[in-house]
């Protein structure tokens, strides 16, 4: 029988498994058992429409057998089995290995990838030097044997097997100096692995376990008891899904193991929500808020969804209708006996139960996030760095329809400290004289802090949110105000932070020098909508401010979004600090030296653009103008 080659990518992955430095080799058992359980599920499903294909409920099961003499571990199931074609397709290729993620070179990276995917069947090669799979499919006449010693390839031959199902024999690798494989033949070890990873599997996982029991004694015999070894066929798993158990009986470690194993994360969840809901629709939910975004979270391949069960039987791997887009990072399980087994994707959306469940799940998630925000701000900030953008997008999306539900989840950095704060916290700390919620936007918090107009607001003793995410300003724009306090971009329009006297003085000065400002506007060829004095620039000489709804930053972002170019224009005003010596210089030049006045105006405008983070329109001209000044 000719040896067949694995597909290239599968070969790489297999090679990685065989030479794995992954420390968590023990997961191989979990993977095989989960496959066995899936296979039994499949057979069970098919027997719903054709009862001749099924077994009695109590006959389904998974068996583990150890043969110490031959150094083998065998996992058998009476599930759906595989045809020769299935063997070829399923074990010759690995589902995820065509993703190109596996470079096979950087070991550390690969390890974290092993953790992120369920690497499934191939993980058995971490502990085995040879694997033999014997299987017979439902309705199949012939049984087949798949055999492989690793990257060299595999063979598929016909063989004898009476019953439908699959048997996987692993020939354990020889123990090496710092790697022992014999431990996996130890009954205790196997039992504890099953308890750790596979306890909730719904079918019994049985194994013959040797135990020593006291021999029976005659009545009145007070001598030391003698022991004998008997072989007991034990069921190793409790078969109760974790979510069926009472939350108070489940430890954090159990939740973490379950989460990591099932959702392929290497870190434990930030929070776990486990609840049994009663009412119109009865169901259990076990939800997890992850710490880190999965590797594909920001790609278009990412699919949201929760695993949907009907009384312990999985009916859908990813039920998208249970989660709103802005909570698409939540992982978990929903189980309701009110759902019928044959619910289809099409009927799901209209399904009353699913809608009800989705609504209450959303509420639960939000409350849990608010709780985390209150109890552990540092952890919340970590969470926020991974998923905050998604929630901000939720605020802004669909014309802000969800803004009220989500606004209290938002946190931003601000000028008053390192910690991120909420809108509520900001508003509650506002001094009475402050009328608006101020925010500044720049590439980094440090730059936002240094903006002239940020400084002016700070001088008044008001806090300023420092925004750095493209979506931030759009999200705040959608909310518009909080607790009756309007949001104000520090670089837009009138900041309204001056006293009445200051306002009067400013108004007067602006009227008096109107002619000068018109001249400057002409010099700038209409690039600015206005030029004026400002009293709100702190120590800084100049600033650009925007006049309408679209700020300079928004215009920049919009210009990068196809189809939005026409909105990508901000009307700008050039502001000169009335209290800065520069204002006197300009006044004098306007009266005495028109040529220099023009030159100054152009340079000031170019500098103001730079301060606002806008690109320099013509760097060569600017340099020449500055040099002209220097050499005058
Ligand atoms: P995954 O389980 O993520 O699909 P695996 O590599 O573990 O990846 O398995 C590949 C495929 O092989 C499975 O999807 C399934 O179709 C098939 N398979 C594996 N183990 C069994 C089994 N015990 N019985 C029937 N089919 C199996």
Task: Provide a concise account of the structure shown.
The chain is built from 20 helices and 22 strands. By secondary structure, the protein is an alpha+beta fold.
Rg from Cα: 34 Å
Overall pLDDT confidence? 88
Parts with pLDDT < 50 across at least 5 consecutive residues: 96-105
- The backbone outline, from C-alpha atoms, is elongated
Sequence of strands across the biggest β-sheet: 5-4-3-6-2-1-7-8
Helix content: 25-40%
Report, as a whole number of angstroms, the end-to-end distance: 92 Å
Question: Which band does the percent of strand residues land in?
Answer: 15-25%
Content-based structural category = alpha+beta
Biggest pleated-sheet summary: 8 strands, mixed
* Tally of separate helices: 20
Number of strands: 22
Identify the bound ligands. adenosine-5'-diphosphate
Which characteristics define this entry?
single chain; 632 residues; eight-stranded mixed β-sheet; 22 strands; binds adenosine-5'-diphosphate
In words, what does this structure look like?
- The protein has 632 residues and is an alpha+beta fold.
- Helix content is 38%, strand content 21%.
- It contains 20 helices and 22 strands.
- The strands form four sheets. It has an eight-stranded mixed beta sheet, with helices on one face. Strands 15-14-17-16-19-18 form a six-stranded mixed beta sheet, sandwiched between helices.
- Helix 8 (352-375) crosses helix 9, helix 9 packs across helix 14 (470-479) and helix 18 packs antiparallel against helix 19 (594-611).
- The N and C termini lie far apart (92 Å).
- 34% of the residues are buried.
- Adenosine-5'-diphosphate is lined by residues 31, 35-36, 39, 77, 79-82, 90, 94-95, 118, 120-121, 166.
